[in-house]
């Protein structure tokens, strides 16, 4: 069974994904091609709709040439700052 990301934390993964993808001037379609994650899944993740798994986050971070831990740490930092405010 794949471990799903908490829906609240998934919002911050969505922000991180879109930010990094845009910084690299990648379309969602190109990211889907290089990551092996379907375009519709990437659209759902970036829209913070539906379930996200840690395995999918791993494949996306790898395709973006961002270490998995840094990808999650940045999302976690944004999540933590929201909780503190």
Question: Could you describe the 3D structure shown?
Answer:
The chain is an all-alpha fold and 85 residues long. It has one domain: Orthogonal Bundle (434 Repressor (Amino-terminal Domain)). 71% of the residues lie in helices and 0% in strands. It contains 5 helices and no strands. The protein has helices at 7-23, 28-35, 39-46, 54-63, 68-84. Helix 1 packs across helix 5 and helix 2 (28-35) crosses helix 4 (54-63). The longest helix has 17 residues, at 7-23. It is globular and about 30 Å long. The mean pLDDT is 87.
Quick gist of this model?
Helix content is 71%, strand content 0%. By secondary structure, it is an all-alpha fold.
> What do we call the CATH homologous superfamily?
lambda repressor-like DNA-binding domains
Shape: globular
CATH topology: 434 Repressor (Amino-terminal Domain)
- Beta content comes to under 5%
Order of helices and strands: HHHHH
Q: What structural category arises from helix and sheet content?
A: mainly alpha
- What is the strand tally? 0
Q: Characterize the main sheet.
A: none
Task: Provide a count of the helices.
Answer: 5
Helix content: over 70%
Uncertain spans: none
What is the CATH class designation?
A: Mainly Alpha
Distance between the termini: 34 Å
Total domains: 1
CATH architecture: Orthogonal Bundle
Give the C-alpha Rg: 12 Å
Mean pLDDT reading: 87
Q: What assembly state would you assign to the polypeptide chains in this entry?
A: single chain
